[in-house]
Amino acid sequence: MKTINVGLIGHKFMGRAHTHAYTDVSVFFDPEIHVSKRVICADEESVHDIAKRWGWERSTLDWREVVNDVEIDLVDISAPSTIHAQVAIAAARAGKHILCEKPLSLNIEDAEEMVRTAKEAGVINMIGFNYRRVPALALARQLIQEGRIGVVHHFRGIYQQSWLINPQFPLVWRLQKKDAGYGSHGDLGAHVIDLARYLVGDIDRVFCEQQTFTTKRPKPASVDGLVAVAGDEIGSVDVDDASAILLRFAGIKAMGYIEVTRYGTGHRNQNRIEVNGSKGAILFDMEKMNELHYYSTADESHVQGFRRIQVGEGSHPYMANWWPAGHIIGYGDTFVNQAFDLISAIRDDKPVKPDFLDGLICQKVLDAAARSVSSGSWESVS
């Protein structure tokens, strides 16, 4: 059996999620190929102990060792956004297939170079929009494409987290533009923008408002993913805490609205999606990720209403490979579904979605929205 050797850059939140995916993809799917966790990389000494715990064959502190290793087939970039472009471009030039977490890069120029280099190298490339691999959202797309809800009129996406409500939470890298590129706008908004495109279609123009509620925070003494301990020094937040975007889609009359915030009191990780059409509607809430609510105007009026579909049948997307009917899966398992699609694409030498181009298009929407904040007017997505 052929082997795909993986090199993982990053050992925190996303590194853990992606390790889970490579570890379990052959347990629940048959990719017809062996996935080997060859090397994990980070710029902290703790990566060596992590490698042993997570089952990686070896570890390194230099991502260049991963990219230049002739045995590595797939480079997985799960590190902060600040190094996405340089690692991805070097990996593509070295002939490696690439999975890169979102957002694609810190600026449009680097994102365009990533797309161009991957295309010229002919390598399989994928951006980590794992919500496309939530079975309920994949089913929603299926229902929309089948015409079950008719002509789409509205898309609404609300992504709420609440981990920044405490003003003493430290100034982690996600709150620094030089490291993250964006605030909640890019961290959470990128996911919702991609789902808008996935479910409805391309976005033509946007209008955006943003707010930073806490502008000063203590610098961290230590950080582990989304967990941090405050130090004594104070620093400035230079990204948004919340962002609201009005959307217009290309070629259709549908209206869109996206709201994202890290101040969503009462919500740890709510990604709520609603699409209304002429014949029905779908409603999804990540806090109940194994459910999809579907409304149909074809039902008799006295029984019309949203019906709850428990997405656990073998006929639902991805679910035939998991547990018996009705047994739910979790957030981390979306990365297993993602890994299977990526590994299968590499095996068959076929493109996979979403790719770097999807990441670039999403980033162009993000940038158009950022321009709108400054101009106070609608901005076109180039």
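That was protein one. Protein two is written in the same sequence-then-structure order:
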Amino acid sequence: MTAAPASPAPDDARRIEEFSLNASGAFQSLVYDGWLLGYRPGPTKRLRCVNPFYASSLPVAAKIAYCVQFYRNVGLPPLFRLLPFSQPPGLDRELDRAGWTRFEPTLVQTVEFALLQTLAVPAHTVEIVAVPEWVDATAALLDVSDDNRPRLRERAQSYPLPQAGALARREGEVVAGGLVKLESDAAGLFALTTAPAMRGQGYGRAVVAALLAEARRQGARRAYLQVTASNTAATTLYAHFGFATAYDYWYRGLTDLR
């Protein structure tokens, strides 16, 4: 097991955030005085919230009010995603005082490949495939509707940066999968999923190992992922590979409609 990495400087952590948002593909957002207002509908909250990354110049209360109205106009609940380096520095306190509820703390974990021990041969065979093929193969596993599948396939086909999918099968059925998306020297792991009945049997570990090996083959020097803080099974799995928490983030919302 490798030692936990030192906390990244805000600029480096912010760069990881940029990698992650770029990796999401087709990121619909407006730039508002250093804040990114994401408005892509769907289950991924970080793509439909305020990401207050950069220096802010307008009065905070006025900006918050603008954001509330913006999300109401586009038919989405107003949400903020707060990080240790959110701008301005007192934004989280301001939202707390205004009654915005904090929820869903999430860990951003990283590992440097130079510190990564040689990956063991996975217990299960894992295929590395093109992402459009991965979208179709994992539709049942991820509960993707037939209506949404063409849109996701088109997004995968138009994605401009290197990417790959991983599939683990049992008796021909896909039981685990994940994605790796690369930018600069960093590889992000996304959509890591194992069928509930197959958990604890090494499929998830095999998928992570295969994705890290593919990232290393394509020249990445480090990897990152995001995991809900309460998901102890996942954090235990990632710790096996040397992943450790670099920083965290959390959401704030006005109601339970998130």
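Helices lie at 10-24, 60-73, 91-97, 131-137, 149-158, 203-217, 232-240. Keep this in mind for the problem set.
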